[in-house]
Amino acid sequence: xxxxxxxxxxxxxxxxxxxxxxxxxxxxxxxxxGGYMVTPALIVFGFPGYMASGTDACHIAGKAVISSIxxxxxxxxxxxxxxxxxxxxxxxxxxxxxxxxxxxxxxLSGVVLLAASVAVMLGLFIYTQIETQASHKKLDADRxxxxxxxxxxxxxxLPLYFQRIPIMPIIKAKKxxxxxxxxxxxxxxxxxxxLAGFLGVGGGFIRVPAMVYVIGTTSHLAVGTDLVEIVVSxxxxxxxxxxxxxxxxxxxxxxxxGAMIGAxxxxxxxxxxxxxxxxxxxxxxxxxATVGAAMRLLYVVxxxxxxxxxxxxxxxTLGEMVFLCLFIVTLVWFAVRYQHGKSVPDWVPAxxxxxx
Amino acid sequence: MKWFINNMxxxxxxxxxxxxxxxxxxxxxxxxxxxK
Lengths: 356, 36
Description:
The complex is a heterodimer. By secondary structure, chain A is mainly alpha-helical. Chain A has helices spanning 13-30, 35-45, 49-73, 79-105, 109-144, 158-163, 182-199, 204-215, 219-243, 249-269, 275-301, 307-339, 348-351, and strands at 3-6, 9-12, 170-173, 178-181. Helices cover 74% and strands 4% of the residues of chain A. The termini of chain A are far apart. Chain B has one domain (2-35). Chain B starts with a helix and ends with a helix.
């Protein structure tokens, strides 16, 4: 096996390439950096915590560039929303990090962080799952009635309230085809940034639902636009982590090697599916990450004595990446089969775009 | 087996079982000694 050593640990290279590939597929498809999956995975592979975080930040930045280029070609980026959110996000991240440091000072950070992760991810999962299932039912009903169906189907009325807020400046997001107060975009960026800074993640899994359910973009546009955000925030994170000596560039190289193919595949995969499919996979990602975080929380709270909990947390961390990647790859395979008139499972036609 | 493919929840369970199984094998074979 071709291995190399990181901080005294021998790391199997193929695992890094595989991780880069699977998280590249998932990140390109649902618009997340994947830090909440990759950092724990790198720790499992033997990276020290600080090095896992730093190496992951560099890999995320590189992978986001690859995915963004693809999504730009697919027309999935609204630059007005992206640039508006970046400012709010950077400010929010700084506030979130200060909040985290405060909880560290009062000795609560470990448990509070994990509990907050569980609460946020669980809440997002419940809302996304309920709304997506309602959209799926509407899709099935419209198909049965023979109506023409677009790429995006949403039942949530929440964006309409936020789009009616009359605080100037009101901007027109051309690609997203909506008119909204710039302050809504900036404040959404700030709130998601605070959560991201506090939880120590990129925040894609918070920003994508926020863009869909608060600002009112389509799922495809939210994915592409969020990846632009990640290029900026991830790039800054990568720079800071490199300056602090927290990055193993050989590991980044091998992960990007896998991500070069995975990120492009994941981005292109969005053109085969409808919006609810993207939101389903995002919600599955959230619930699996919640279970993994809950296991880690239980392990910490029980004083690190229950070894089976550590095993389950590790298996869930790795299994989540594999599951999501497999789901996306098989969904694309089903979509291609459906477009060629071949048989597919009953739930597939509502989720994929027919041949044009 | 048909239920696991034709039903979305069933397909979810089917893929999750495969993924967790593969991860457990990967952990036992490659990673367990690293965590000791």
